[in-house]
UniProtKB/TrEMBL annotation:
Origin species: Pedobacter ginsenosidimutans
Ranges that cross the membrane: 39-60, 81-103, 109-130, 174-197
Residue ranges of domain Fatty acid hydroxylase in the record: 114-251
GO molecular function: glyceryl-ether monooxygenase activity; iron ion binding
Name the UniProt record assigns to this protein: Fatty acid hydroxylase
Major location category of this protein: membrane
Transcription keyword on record: no
Amino acid sequence: MIDFLEGVKEWLVGFFGLPALLKLLQTNDYSQFMSWNGISALMGPLIPFLLVFEIIRMAFYRRFKVVDYRISFFSLVINSFIGRIISIGMVSICIGLFGRYAIFKTEITWYWLIYGYVIWEFGHFIYHFLAHKVRLFWCLHSTHHAPETMNLSVNFAHFFLEAPYADLIRTTTCILLGVSPALLFLIMFIDGFWGSFIHIGENISKDGRFGFLNKIILTPSHHRVHHAKNALYMDTNFCNLLPIWDHVFKTYQEEDKTVKIEYGITREMKKHSFLDAYFGEIVLLAKDVWRAPGIKNKFLYIFMPPGWSHTKDHKTAKIVRSEYLKNYKPEMANS
């Protein structure tokens, strides 16, 4: 029993990002908080504590529902033991394999940080775009879109193989284009914090636009749009902090306050089912491949976008959104 309680204690300390902070506090050398290690130790616990604050606030206003956190909780448990280890290994492998082929080497300076972040966002865009446009990769990514509410716990709702797949693309892109490992880890830390923070729901920030920042960076409002299943919002806002590549590839979409966001995925799911959220898309893909006539159609089901059909009755996000936009008048909706 004591060993179990100790294990729970260690898990909680790790979940709240406290080990690095406690280690620094034990030194009694508070000047270390002015260093990069100190800053990262201070920022580490922010997202977990914001999540707890969010839950407490929802409970106070009697809006807290355990089922809204079920998918995220079970995903966190699985990924804590499997996904994180594989992801770290993938980053290391990519650095070792592709570092020698880098076109040049960068250093940690403000201008290389800007360059590195633009490149990181490019890699992130590629991974994220493919996760929505290739059905096999959507099977890995759909778990993150399955929750039907937006809150900080959604940040933990991921299939365990998604992080290694994402890191394969993002890390390789950065390393080949000259982002040094040291700079890459700095960018990963910044991106990890912001990528978690933009999942805050209406219970913490109702509007989520953050004033003028909404025109410069991607805010929680933008990411709520990304998680929406509304036709207007499908497959938009793939970047994480800088929307540069969404503008370049025409996938940028502002939130229209007249179009209420509906979270989740478009197929009918078993309500609040972790198993359906985690494995449902894989099962459906396997069924489509099994039933598809001919080898060509079987391969197409794997690599074409979700909604593609060998019967030509396609219901891909691109088609659904295009049909919606024919009658959508944003100037009237936002007037």
